[in-house]
Amino acid sequence: MLRKKNKETQTDLSKVIGVSMRTIQNWEAGITDVPLEKLKIIAQYYSVSVSDLFKDHFVFADDKKDEKEKSSLELEIQKIVKAELQENKKELQDLNTKLDVVSEALSELILEREEKKILKGIKRA
Fold first, then answer.
1. Is the pLDDT of residue 67 over 70?
2. pLDDT tens digits, residue range 23-65?
């Protein structure tokens, strides 16, 4: 559990993400599920992905869930991972677009520099 690995109390974490200590207790005991927006805050706080929270058993006490609940949980995890992948894909596309713009601008600067060298060489001749 990330919270315990970081030697933090439930109160510590509750203050960071803006919920009560009781809410943290319920999440960790598997009584209630963590809303996606809070998962994102927790993931950002610990510098991990949302899916990593589930791998680390941060949120749910799996041994307290029956098979139906586990299946439902697995579907929810898949949805979260898919959403996270879509966000990453969009970020990557945005970065590629920016890279294309920078590459084009750099190419133009190189061409301008070469043209200036050629013009200087013509003027000297």
1. no
2. 999 988 888 888 888 988 998 999 988 877 776 554 444 445 5
For residues 13 and 3, the answer to whether their CB atoms sit within 8 Å is: yes
First to last CA, the chain: 75
Q: CATH number, domain at 75?
A: 1.10.260.40
Domain range for 66 is 2-124
User: What tokens appear for 3 in the block?
Assistant: 């919270």
Number of folded domains that form the chain:
1
Task: State how far the Cα of 73 lies from the Cα of 59, in Å rounded to an integer.
Answer: 11
Assigned token pair, 51: 């899916």
What is the C-alpha separation between 19 and 90, in angstroms, rounded? 30
> Model pTM?
0.48
